[in-house]
Design goal:
The complex is a heterodimer. Chain A has one domain. Chain A is built from two helices and five strands; from the N terminus they run H-E-E-E-H-E-E. In chain A, strands 3-2-1-5-4 form a five-stranded antiparallel sheet. In chain A, strand 2 and strand 3 form a beta hairpin. The longest helix of chain A has 17 residues. Chain A is globular and about 40 Å long. By secondary structure, chain B is α/β, with parallel strands linked by helices. Chain B folds into two domains: 89 residues, no CATH class; 150 residues, Rossmann fold (3-Layer(aba) Sandwich), CATH 3.40.50.720. In chain B, the strands form two sheets. A six-stranded parallel sheet of chain B has the order 8-7-6-9-10-11, covered by helices on one side. In chain B, strands 3-2-1-5-4 form a five-stranded antiparallel sheet, with helices on both faces. The longest helix of chain B is centred in the last third of the chain and has 16 residues. The termini of chain B are far apart. Classes of the chains: A alpha+beta, B alpha/beta. Chains A and B meet through helix 1, strand 1 and strand 5 of A and helix 1, strand 1 and strand 5 of B. Chain B: InterPro entries: MoCofactor_Util/Proc (IPR052698), XdhC_Rossmann_dom (IPR027051). Chain B: It comes from Evansella vedderi. Chain B: Pfam families: XdhC_C. Chain B: This is Xanthine dehydrogenase accessory factor. Chain A: Pfam families: XdhC_CoxI.
Chain lengths: 103, 267
């Protein structure tokens, strides 16, 4: 496990900026990232790190922007099982539970 | 909340080679508890980022400590009193402790690459003029030992300890190996530099004390065969072998496999 994104998160807080941290906390089946993968989301939608790309990641970014706004942490399940072929070519077929918190 | 002290403490703990679990309360009947973080160590000691989570001290030892002992990163659910709790337990392993015995010129590039690979690097030598921080500014620890004997008698050893013997003479290798082989704890890697003649001499002397030992687990001559000549080349050869052991890989060129697959064509 790498401490990099946590240190990055602390640095963002020290600068007094708003952002959210998304962490993959549970997975089922085949998923693009494993438990522990992290992504930082900024209010303008910029990201650092990845929780797997594609539609699932876009959904998490949208949720994270909401978390930055409301300051209430949330769980979001990325479901990659519906439809074997995503438009963007995601063909994983599992689910990932993401914990999203405001920094 | 992700607080600064907790991440700083986590980092310090990793640097000290203490395995640490970072626990995040990801769900709780009392919503105010969500997002709180706690550090947990193998001996059950804890550090709470926020006093509110201290009521869970006992519960965390009961539910999270077993995960830590199994070296697992995992999310768990449990009930504690009236509360339903979900914790995400993230394990931060201690980095590999890479001990280089003998601070000569091969040691310099080896120590550098060891740091590049995020190992905790110790350079040890019994000569004060060699074991200096000026010569090894990037390593974690430079030890000027009284003797290799006393050093290898006492240094903590686990399967995450990798030992590389680059000493100036075979009698120092013998002294070091006598200690390493007689200890209960076994390092994950032992490598020893030397010519075939020197190696034969070392094993001959060791056989007196360890008649039943095959010495097969000692990597010597050290390194992977890439025709290394200079200290820098030798360091790459040695570190490639160490990664091979750490990652349990073959050490072969990856292209070998692909060439035969390519002949089958793309299906």
């Amino acid at each position: 496990m790498s401490i990099h994104y946590l240190q990055q998160a602390v640095a963002i807080r020290e600068r007094g900026e708003a952002a959210a941290l998304a962490t993959v906390i549970q997975t089922k089946g085949s998923t693009p990232r494993k438990v522990g993968a992290k992504m930082i989301i900024y209010p303008n939608g910029d990201i650092e790190g990845t929780i797997g790309g594609g539609c699932g990641e876009a959904e998490v970014i949208r949720e994270a922007l909401n978390v930055i706004e409301t300051k209430v942490p949330c769980h979001y399940v990325v479901d990659l099982t519906s439809g074997l072929l995503y438009e963007d070519g995601g063909i994983c077929g599992g689910t990932m539970e993401i914990f999203i918190e405001r920094l | 909340m992700l607080n600064d002290q907790i991440i700083e403490k986590l980092q310090k703990s990793i640097e000290k080679r203490r395995e640490t679990a970072l626990i995040t309360i990801t769900d709780h009947t009392d919503r105010r508890m969500v997002g709180n973080r706690i550090l947990l160590w193998n001996d059950g000691s804890q550090y709470h980022g926020n006093t509110a989570s201290q009521c869970l001290t006992e519960a965390l030892n009961l539910h999270c400590l077993p995960l830590m002992i199994m070296k697992k990163t995992k999310t768990i659910n449990f009930q504690w009193g009236d509360a339903i709790v979900q914790c995400y337990v993230e394990l931060y392993k201690a980095p590999i402790h890479f001990i280089i015995a003998g601070a000569g010129h091969v040691c310099e590039p080896v120590a550098k690459v060891g740091k590049m690979l995020d190992f905790f690097v110790t350079v040890v030598d019994d000569r004060p003029e060699f074991a200096t921080e000026e010569r090894f500014p990037e390593v974690d620890e430079v030890v000027c030992c009284e003797s290799y004997l006393s050093y290898f008698q006492h240094v903590p050893i686990t399967s995450d300890t990798y030992v590389l013997l680059l000493t100036r003479g075979h009698k120092f290798d013998v002294i070091s190996l006598q200690q390493l082989l007689s200890r209960q704890e076994k390092p994950g890697y032992i490598g020893m530099i030397g010519s075939r003649r020197r190696i034969a001499g070392v094993f001959e002397q060791l056989r007196e004390d360890f008649p039943n030992e095959s010495f097969d687990h000692i990597y010597t001559p050290v390194g992977i065969d890439i025709g290394a000549q200079t200290p820098e080349e030798i360091s790459i050869s040695i570190m490639a072998e160490i990664l091979k052991v750490k990652n349990q890989a073959s050490g072969h060129s990856l292209s070998g496999e692909v060439h035969s697959l390519a002949k089958l064509g793309f299906r």
